[in-house]
Give the backbone structure.
Amino acid sequence: MLFGLAFLIGIMLLFWYNVKDYQKTEVAKTAEVKNVLPDAVSGVIYNKPYYSLSYVEQYEIPEWVAYKLTVGMLNQQKFPRNQDFNPDPAITSTSAHYHDYKQSGYRRGHLVPSADMAWNKPAMDATFLLSNIAPMREEFNDGVWLELEHNVRDWARRYNEIDVVTGPVFRDSIAVIGRNDVLVPRYFYKAVFTTQNQKPEVIGFLFDQTINTAERLDAFVVPIDSIEKLTGIDLFAGRYGDWDEEIRLEKRDKIEKGQWLFNEKWYKERTNN
């Protein structure tokens, strides 16, 4: 009987230590995610499964979405999509509604792509909340924007882990749509950060969604500094190791040799070549 009691106590202690280790790991993950988030400039920050966003009630779209993407996430089994677009009940001021987009001439464009979160059902479902959506022209959403999303996933596989920040530029907007006056941005940006062999690397893109183009993705590379000036958002503050390196990398407008390679497959798919 004493042996059985000792065995039971041992099992309970093992379970307790495993729970504590799990809790520590989850706390560490939460802290890590929070450290990569930009500040909210015009919006209110909301945390979703595996991504965060800053929602701007005035425009009914987020000023940014931010998330970490790893090769481990992409290597997991994918869940099929069975979720439709829905208002986000977490937005205290209420979010845009799917009726705002109906017959507007604009697509409900994902900022966090559903394919990036297809490894986790709650996370993928959350990408269809209208707090993660902005109005996009079909040619843009299904064209160069989609090509960049494919390449971002390729970079996560290559670098093992990347941080992504995506959003609209509020100035020089095109129009508003729907009963809730959802802003239609003219410009969208995407910025990607990684650390390889203790060396930070970053790349930024800026698109005018009104322009149909067959140009390659490198034509849309811009300095991170220029995106920050347009948006007022400090994208990757404190991530570069030192101030001089941050200035150098954020003002750079060209890709260093061997970094951020573009997959020719996605370009050919977009241009039907």
The radius of gyration is 21 Å. The mean pLDDT is 89. The longest helix spans residues 2-35.
